[in-house]
Amino acid sequence: PTITYTDATGAARSVEATVGDSVMETAVRNGVPGIVAECGGSLSCATCHVFVDADDFASLPAMEEMEDEMLWGAAVDRQDTSRLCCQIKVTDGMDLHVTTPETQV
Ligand code: FES
């Protein structure tokens, strides 16, 4: 699986991901900037907010209510394709594109 992270300046980096990790863990492990993940994936910080590529968004499992609530409460400039990437699991053959918000640099 491959995850491509684009930051707010437009710089993109693709990393090889491990099935079962989250998209947040993959970023942290690879030193991808823009994903702070203060809470370590326990759904309480929203500093792992990403905008998922529209085509990819549809193929992801729907978000749980808790994630939805965190996004409303804590994420700056939420969009239709916003997700908290600690809640996105890497799956076999995944080719995911996400962009980090301007506020996370
Ligand atoms: Fe804190 Fe995702 S890492 S909500």
From TrEMBL:
Tagged with keyword Iron-sulfur: yes
Domain of life (superkingdom): Bacteria
Co-factor requirement: [2Fe-2S] cluster
Signal peptide positions (record): none
Keywords: 2Fe-2S, Iron, Iron-sulfur, Metal-binding
Domain 2Fe-2S ferredoxin-type residues, every copy: 1-104
Pfam families: Fer2
PROSITE patterns the record matches: 2FE2S_FER_2, ADX
Family indicated by similarity: Belongs to the adrenodoxin/putidaredoxin family.
Protein's name in the database: 2Fe-2S iron-sulfur cluster-binding protein
Taxonomic source organism: Nocardioides ginsengisoli
